């Protein structure tokens, strides 16, 4: 029985819109039994055949979690049994974590004696390639320790067996990308001759320790680089809009009652009644403006008519035939 991956694939018909026509498919892939075994050319040290004892075989058979490793042992040499993988664990065994929960990322390697490991170039991404966050640089130093601190060795089997288990890891507060429920982590694992050279992350980028490279054949030489990755579902209760909608639509959610203090004359109006009230007020305002305009125009008309009645008139006296010249009388205002 090999490793099984189960993935829920959301088929969105439009690039930007989610519609009722979108479909969901569950895809299950079963990996071959030797999928975790390393085929790195760096593991070329001369190794003697491993002779598994009956006691070791019984121990594997008694533990369900080690059955897969026993079936993956397709080679009798330590080089053929080497494998590397990543694990992401939360506080519970449900396989889900919540935002802010202490989460541990572990990178485990089963390698022959004489090899060391170092984790570098860790990246968190949303799985679609749209958003990513760099966590560790090419030297294994953290970009932001508040997001992910430096990887520390947790277990290193120093027994005299041909295969040794090496575990490095770090604990961080779980985070997620907007509109994505799955956090993907991808790191580079360096295989070194002997033990990898540790970098002083506080020394700065100009340090000679960072820029130094081991020559071929020296202890600490980087022989190969492997990529390890895994993902975990991250929940954000009370943050996502979907969670808020489901809470509002649930039967358990009841709208809190509004209690007014005694003696308060505050009254509430629904949106339709509020719109009607504003409409009535607007109509009253327009009527007032119309009345004011009518009064103003009527007053101006009355004033103009009075001015016409009180206009000036000139009394004209004809020349008398008995007078030898024409007499021009002054203008006389005749009042009616």
From TrEMBL:
Keyword Transmembrane: yes
InterPro entries: ZP-C, ZP-C_dom, ZP_dom
Regions crossing the membrane: 274-297
ZP domain boundaries: 1-208
Keywords attached to this entry: Disulfide bond, Membrane, Transmembrane, Transmembrane helix
Name recorded for this polypeptide: ZP domain-containing protein
Provenance organism: Coptotermes formosanus
